[in-house]
C-alpha cells in the first residue's frame, strides 16, 4: 500500500507548477485556497505566480472552480477509481482497454495528455475533496489518488493533500495519530489501540448499533450521518459538547454549552496540511471550554466505582 | 461436544475468541463456563451469556443469534464449530485448521488471514472474506471459504492462497490487491472486480464490468479449470468446464500495478 506523500501549503506556494483539484470545489468551499497558497501567489520557484502554474479540475459537473482552471475534465459520477487506476497504468506506459475508458466520460487522449503533463511537471500536487472520498469506492478512491501520487515520484516530485474542512477535523486525526498510532476508527476497549475502519469507525458503530452511549465533541453527526445512525444516537444516552444548538444536540440527552474554540476559548487548530496553529480568543465567554468540561467529567468519573461489577471469580485467561 | 446457547443478544458486541476447540477441547463443562469473554472493556464469564452443556471434545456448537459475538474460532487449528444461527465479525480469523459451519448469516472478516481449514456459511456473509487486516501485507494463505448466499465488499482482499466460493452476488472490489489463490463468483459481482490484483484467479459465471486496466487475453477452457471443477465437486459446488457447455473469456490485469492476475468470465454456449 502507498501511504500519503505530502508537504505543507507553503511548499506548494513556493514550488508547485502543476495543481490538480479532484472532486472538490475550492472556489466556493475553500475560497482563499487559490489566492493564498496554490494559484495566484508568486513563489520562490514559480516567480510569475499564476503564469507559471497549470491548474486541472476534475469533477462531475462544471462548478465555479472550473473558471479558474486551465483544463477542466468532466467525468461521469462514480468513475473516479476507474480513471485514477487507468492513469496509474498510463503513467507507467502500460496498455489500457480503450473501449472501457470511454465509459468514464473522458477519452483516452485526454487521459494520456493528463498523464504526460503530470510526468512533465516539476512539482505536482493533487488536492482531493469529498466528491472523491465520499462517493462509491470511498477509502479506495482516496487510496487510488495516494498511490498515483506516490508512483509519480518515480518521474517527478508529486504530493497529495485532502481538502479538509468542517472545523478542526485534521486536528482530531493528528492527535489520534500521535497518541494511538492511527488517525480514526480506533478501539481502546482492550487497553491498547486497535484500528479497524468499518468495525470501529463512528458511522459503522452507530449504524450497526454497537455502542450504548455516545459523547459528541466538536461534530454534528445528527446532520451528516445516515438515518439509522441518527436513530441510534437518539436511542442511546448521547452527550453533546457544543457552543450552539445543533441537530445532534436536539436529540441528545445532555447538551453542555461550551465556549467556541478560537473565538472565546484558546486552542490549537491544525491546518489542512497538518500545521498546528495556535488560536487566541477574541471574546470572553461565560461558558467553560471543551477541555475543562472533559477534565471535570474525567475527575468525577475517576471518583466513582467501576460502572460494571466485575464477576467475583474469573477464570484465569489462557 | 459442548453446546453453548446464547441467552439473549447483548446490546454491544461480545468478543469471544475463547470459543474455539483449541481452548475448550481439554476443559470440563464447568471450566468452559468460567472462560472469559469481553463485553465492552470488561471481562465476564461465558455462562453469564451462554447456557453451557455437554462434555469436553473437539466439537463446539453455538446456538441462538450470535450475530453480535465476534472472533468465534479465532486461530483454531482443529475440531469443528457449528453455529446454528448468525455469527458475528472475524469468524475463524487466523484459523489454521478445522471446520466452521454457520447455518445462517455471518458478518465481515470471515476467515481473515486464515491459513488452513474450511468455513461454510449457509446464509449471507459480509465483506472482507479471507482478507488481510488493514496494514497487513497479505490475507488468507490457505483453506477454503464457501458462502451460499451473497457477500459484501472487498472479498478476498490481498489474499495469497486458498479458495473462496460465493454462490450469490458480491459487491465491489472482489479480489482487491489479490496476490494469489482463487475466487469463484457464481452469482457475479458489482464494480471493480480484481482491482489492483497482482496474481491469482477470479472465476465468474456471470458478466462483470471490468476496469479499463484489464486486457482480453484468450477464450478457451483452461486445463486447470477441469482440476478445479473436480476439486470443488467434492465440496458440493459444480463449476462448468466442458467445451460443449461454453468457454471462459480470460482477461489479464491489473495493468496499473502492473499485475498478472486473471479474471475468467464464463460464456455458455448459445
Commentary on this structure:
- The complex is a heterodimer of chains A (318) and B (270).
- Mean pLDDT of chain A is 91; it is low at 311-318.
- Chain A is globular and about 65 Å long.
- Chain A has 14 helices and twelve strands.
- The relative contact order of chain A is 0.10.
- Chain A has two domains: 9-162, 3-Layer(aba) Sandwich (Dimethylsulfoxide Reductase, domain 2); 169-303, 3-Layer(aba) Sandwich (Rossmann fold).
- Chain A has 318 residues and is of the alpha/beta class.
- Chain A has helices at residues 9-15, 26-29, 33-38, 80-91, 98-101, 108-120, 130-133, 139-152, 169-180, 202-208, 221-224, 227-235, 247-251, 290-303; strands at 18-22, 54-59, 71-74, 123-128, 157-162, 186-187, 194-195, 214-217, 238-242, 254-257, 267-270, 276-279.
- In chain A, helix 4 (80-91) packs across helix 6, helix 4 (80-91) packs parallel to helix 8 (139-152) and helix 10 packs across helix 12.
- Chain B is mostly beta strands and 270 residues long.
- Chain B has a domain at 108-268.
- Chain B is 8% helix and 31% strand.
- Chain B is built from three helices and 17 strands.
- The longest helix of chain B has 12 residues, at 223-234.
- Chain B is elongated and about 60 Å long.
- In chain B, 53% of the residues are buried.
- Chain A binds chain B through residues 1, 78, 81-82, 85-86, 88-89, 92, 94-98, 100-101, 104, 136-137, 140, 188-191, 195-199, 209-212, 306, 308, 310-311, 313-315, 317-318, and chain B through 11-13, 15, 18, 23, 31, 34-36, 38-45, 48, 68, 89, 108-109, 127-128, 133-135, 172-173, 176, 191-192, 195-196, 209-216, 254-258.
Amino acid at each position: 500500500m502507498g501511504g500519503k506523500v505530502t508537504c505543507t501549503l507553503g511548499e506548494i506556494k513556493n514550488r508547485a507548477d502543476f495543481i490538480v483539484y479532484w472532486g472538490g470545489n475550492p472556489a466556493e468551499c475553500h475560497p482563499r485556497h487559490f489566492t493564498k497558497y496554490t494559484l495566484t501567489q508568486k513563489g520562490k520557484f514559480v516567480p510569475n505566480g499564476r503564469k507559471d502554474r497549470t491548474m486541472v479540475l476534475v469533477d462531475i459537473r462544471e462548478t465555479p472552480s472550473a473558471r479558474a482552471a486551465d483544463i477542466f475534465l468532466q467525468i461521469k459520477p462514480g468513475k473516479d477509481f476507474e480513471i485514477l487506476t487507468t492513469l496509474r497504468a498510463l503513467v507507467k506506459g502500460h496498455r489500457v482497454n480503450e473501449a472501457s475508458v470511454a465509459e468514464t466520460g473522458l477519452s483516452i487522449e485526454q487521459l494520456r495528455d493528463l498523464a504526460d503533463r503530470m510526468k512533465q511537471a516539476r512539482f505536482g500536487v493533487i488536492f482531493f475533496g469529498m466528491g472523491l472520498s465520499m462517493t462509491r469506492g470511498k477509502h479506495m478512491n482516496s487510496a487510488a489518488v495516494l498511490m498515483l501520487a506516490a508512483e509519480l515520484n518515480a518521474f517527478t516530485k508529486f504530493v497529495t493533500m485532502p481538502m479538509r474542512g468542517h472545523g478542526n477535523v485534521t486536528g482530531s486525526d493528528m492527535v489520534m495519530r500521535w497518541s494511538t498510532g492511527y488517525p480514526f476508527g480506533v478501539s481502546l476497549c482492550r487497553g491498547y489501540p486497535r484500528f479497524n475502519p468499518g468495525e470501529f469507525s463512528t458511522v459503522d458503530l452507530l449504524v450497526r448499533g454497537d455502542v450504548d452511549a455516545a459523547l459528541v465533541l466538536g461534530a454534528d453527526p445528527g446532520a451528516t450521518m445516515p438515518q439509522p445512525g441518527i436513530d441510534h444516537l437518539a436511542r442511546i444516552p448521547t452527550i453533546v459538547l457544543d457552543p450552539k444548538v445543533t441537530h445532534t444536540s436536539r436529540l441528545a440527552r445532555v447538551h453542555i454549552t461550551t465556549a467556541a474554540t478560537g473565538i472565546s476559548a484558546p486552542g490549537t487548530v491544525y491546518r489542512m496540511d497538518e500545521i498546528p496553529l495556535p488560536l487566541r480568543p477574541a471574546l470572553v465567554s461565560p461558558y467553560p471550554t471543551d477541555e475543562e468540561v472533559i477534565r471535570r467529567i474525567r475527575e468525577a468519573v475517576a471518583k466513582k466505582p467501576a460502572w460494571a461489577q466485575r464477576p467475583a471469580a474469573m477464570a484465569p485467561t489462557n | 461436544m459442548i453446546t453453548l446457547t446464547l441467552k439473549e443478544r447483548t446490546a454491544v458486541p461480545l468478543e469471544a475468541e475463547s470459543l474455539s476447540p483449541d481452548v475448550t477441547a481439554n476443559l470440563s463443562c464447568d471450566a468452559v463456563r468460567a472462560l472469559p469473554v469481553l463485553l465492552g472493556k470488561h471481562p465476564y464469564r461465558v455462562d453469564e451469556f451462554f447456557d453451557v452443556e455437554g462434555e469436553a471434545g473437539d466439537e463446539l456448537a453455538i446456538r441462538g443469534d450470535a450475530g453480535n459475538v465476534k472472533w468465534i474460532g479465532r486461530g483454531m487449528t482443529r475440531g469443528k464449530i457449528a453455529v446454528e444461527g448468525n455469527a458475528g465479525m472475524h469468524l475463524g480469523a487466523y484459523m489454521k485448521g478445522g471446520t466452521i459451519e454457520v447455518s445462517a448469516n455471518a458478518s465481515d472478516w470471515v476467515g481473515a488471514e486464515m491459513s488452513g481449514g474450511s468455513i461454510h456459511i449457509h446464509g449471507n456473509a459480509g465483506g472482507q472474506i479471507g482478507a488481510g487486516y488493514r496494514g497487513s501485507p497479505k490475507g488468507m494463505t490457505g483453506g477454503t471459504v464457501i458462502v451460499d448466499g451473497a457477500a459484501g465488499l472487498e472479498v478476498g482482499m490481498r489474499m495469497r492462497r486458498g479458495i473462496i466460493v460465493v454462490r450469490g452476488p458480491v459487491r465491489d472490489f472482489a479480489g482487491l490487491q489479490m496476490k494469489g489463490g482463487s475466487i469463484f463468483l457464481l452469482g457475479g459481482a458489482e464494480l471493480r472486480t480484481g482491482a489492483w490484483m497482482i496474481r491469482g484467479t477470479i472465476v465468474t459465471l456471470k458478466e462483470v464490468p471490468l476496469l479499463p486496466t484489464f486486457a482480453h487475453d484468450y477464450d478457451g477452457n483452461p486445463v486447470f479449470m477441469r482440476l478445479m471443477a473436480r476439486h470443488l465437486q467434492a465440496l458440493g459446488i459444480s463449476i462448468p468446464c466442458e467445451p460443449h457447455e461454453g468457454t471462459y473469456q480470460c482477461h489479464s490485469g491489473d495493468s496499473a500495478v502492473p499485475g498478472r492476475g486473471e479474471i475468467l468470465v464464463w460464456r455458455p454456449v448459445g
